[in-house]
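Hmm, how's this folded?
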Amino acid sequence: MASSPSFFDLEAALERCASEPIQRPGSIQPEGFLLAFEQGSMTVVQASANVRTWLGVHAQALLGQTIDDLIADGSALIQRMDQLDEESSQPLHVGNVHFRVAGGEARPLSMMFHRTPQALIAEFEAPTDSAVGYTRLYPLVRSFISHMNETETVDDLCRRSIREIKRLSGFGRIMTYSFDEAGNGLVNAEEADEGYDSYLGLSFPASDIPAQARELYRLNRIRVISNVDYQSSALVSAPASASLDLSYAALRSVSPVHLQYMRNMGTAASMSVSIIVKGKLWGLISCHNRQPMSVDFHTRTACELLGRVLSMQIETKLTDIQNQRMLELRHRVVHLLAAMADRDGVIEGIRALPERFVRFVDAQGGAVVFGSMCDVHGTTPDLETIQALAHWLGKRHDDTVFHTDNVSRDIPQLPALAEHCGGLLAVAISSIHSHYLIWFKPELNRVVNWAGRPDKAISDDGSLNPRRSFDQWQEIVQGYSAPWPAFELDAVAELRFAVLGIVLRKAEELAALAESLEKSNRELESFSYSVSHDLRAPLRHIAGYAELLSEMESSNLTERGARFLGNIEDSARFAGALVDNLLSFSQMGRSAMHMSDVNLTAMVESVRREMLPDYEGRQIDWRVQPLPIVFADAALLHLAMRNLISNAIKYSRNQAEAVIEIGSRIEPGRVVIYIKDNGAGFDPIYADKLFGVFQRLHRDDEFEGLGIGLATVKRIIERHDGELWADGTVGKGATFFFSLPSSNQGAA
């Protein structure tokens, strides 16, 4: 038994097969003969060798003769046909012409011609009765068109067309098959005489028809092989003549590999009619016969015309189906967009219609990824896998819409993904951030019934041999989901465009709101500055006069009056301090910043010296790490550090030994400073209240304060494009953090 060919041997054979010059075979089938005329002079530059069988002269003897030398009024016939404005590359039937050769009698033959950039190619066959041919053609087309109806499916159209072609041509078996995206053909209609094998419902592998053969089927819609065992007739050329492109020639000789394929199938004669949809090869009408049989020009023309009508009808049906589906998808788009527009954004809109979002493209599950946040609906992979997918999508620089019907094949970097789905569709809804809409389809294991095992064999000379068996062979295809049709991808692209519009509108609304808030904040700052400034003098007067009254009239005051007067002094001083702090807070957003390198280690030491009177005599364990040099406004940052360190001293005073730790860490894009104490702490659920004006978490009788210090710190840090946050536990202390952009970090 011969061993199976290696992968490299098979690849080499397939490459040789794909490069076979089937458009320029250099020979024709002997059902007729061929003459090639130079375009200008109309002299013969090539002739098929079998012209001797048809005309009784050697092909060499015809080279150099003009068309008028050979055919009565040949040039006039060509000119009249050219005026019909037909497609010049397609064979055109001139009619029956009288051929004359020196020493012989005129002989009528049926003539077809077409033009190529090289030459005018004329093909001659046995004469046919044109009147009979066209009489058959009209009823055929009329009958086929008259029976069309709206409920007829594509398969119905194919079945009806092959019945007509079988009636016209007499082939023993006729079938139609359509190609999938991979090029495999599925037989969807069949008409066969008794004794012929049935291929209905079976698949033919894409490798049965190489790429250059598919292109020929697209260019030339009909091809006939009258006898699989024909002896080809070579083309005899004049000196310096190039090989002829016979893509459109009816008599073109075919590849020996294909002839062997026909023999293996038990086919002696065949005819193929192409089904072209939107300029692409959609499928074929394939006709087989056990015995050799000729097909005259008029029958070929009728079959080709019927194939063109079928192609147009299939295109119409498919376009109608696609339009209906697109209309349905647009309705879904409108509902989703309405939900998004009526709510705060994309996420909220999809949360309102989760089922509609998932079924938008007939998926099983969907996800909305907004940076680190992920919403899932339906059956999806776990959140960690989806985030890994979003990261993988973010590294791609291809189209904004990504789709696959085989995750394990196309995303091998994420093996966990293939455990949850077979296919996915993802669309980016931001060109800056990692924001995606993602749909998932499950894996669908399916059984494919092949017309024979789609294996290839290699001959001794290294060429490709067609497969010999066409017996049904089953294959279980795994790892694939249902495909993503092109119109669904178009609908997703439309959805993306509309979502971007909503996001942009929301961004504009937020920008307008931010501008309005900024204006209001400026007005409030100006108001608070004016009020604070105007209140300072009266409050100082109240405090001063109360102090003078206490000194001058103390002997005349009752105990109760002295107590009242003391309350007035305390309240006036408190109000004065409050106004001073409000004035300072309002100036935070008004004063210009003066940036420079700031040594945080030296700043902390300076603050500790300033605060010494507040903690003198206390037991404090200071744990100050070396701190970086940052680029900041020294005065503002000093005030922020003073407030934070002051809080740490104040709120740890009830501890027998206070521990205050000050340190830093470097994170991507920023430096983080922290001040930690073991004092009173706070409940973390109130962490957001800490930084508001007049927000305090402790009673006045526990810890004094005005509730402005942390708000001031927050404003200072935000003016440096940083962040401020805190963490704490009641009775165990608190840690305050603030960050500054790394661009604000100087040399250590």
In short: Residues 540 and 576 are 7 Å apart (CA to CA). Confidence is low (pLDDT under 50) at residues 1-14. The first helix runs from residue 7 to 18. The radius of gyration is 45 Å.
